[in-house]
Amino acid sequence: MPRLQTGERTPELEAFMSELRKLRTRAGEPSFRKMAAKSGAVSHATLHLTVTGRRLQPWETVREFVRACDGDEEEWHARWQGVQLVLSAEREPAAEPPAAWWRSKRVLVPLAIVLIAAITAVVVVLLPGEQETQAAGPAGPHHPGDSSKFIADVTVPDETVVKPGTQFVKVWEVKNTGTVEWRKRYLRRTDLPVAPGACRTPERIPINDTAPQQHVQVTVTVSTPPTAPVDCKVFWKMVDEQDRELLPTRQPIYFSVLVRP
After folding, report:
1. What is the pTM of this model?
2. Which residues face 245 on adjacent strands?
3. 23, 41, 189, 197 — which has fewest CB within 10 A?
4. How far apart are CA 83 and CA 57, in angstroms?
5. pLDDT at 118
6. Computed from CA positions of residues 78, 84, 87, 91, in that sequence, does the dihedral angle turn out positive or negative?
């Protein structure tokens, strides 16, 4: 399947946005500001992106658009899921490149001998001192069987426009998909110390104790900088009371807002 250039909309996404525009027309073409006021959950700029943006907006945003136009949420959720599946299928992995010259047996055997000799030399150098240790990489969770999954942005979808010098409350929903109970855990901001002019938050926010296979909502209060424009994107990782990162191989969760006058 030919891949689209960056910034292009797929035919499926274009058709979905076209149907949303028709829904708004049938509702009497309300302004996006009136739709945002009726929703009470997202800004007019975010609703505008639902039918003009270059990517499929989260269901929470599309749902508010549908509600503001008195559409059938169940029907539109099914449509949204269909488009999401198509877009996900297009992100297929690239084909594996042809075998390189160094994969032939004539090269691999002597290369392996050289590598073994080099590793042996490193071990011989390190062992006598008994003082140097190699730093372990992020091989897996701190507790075996620990795992998590991001579920949804409950409030303030990505790219929401907010005013400078104000506060908003961001809520995520996360699932404990492992076999380890979460107790006394936190989300820690990753960009510490916080740069001047960035959105301000606590450095760590608590996560309620969560049993395996249960969902939990995590809340943070965000203060926007007094000046604009600023794009605030803040990442968070799960840590314990000792500030140890618990799931190093998991992608961080984040919020992303546009601070505009």
Report:
1. 0.49
2. 239
3. 197
4. 11
5. 53
6. negative
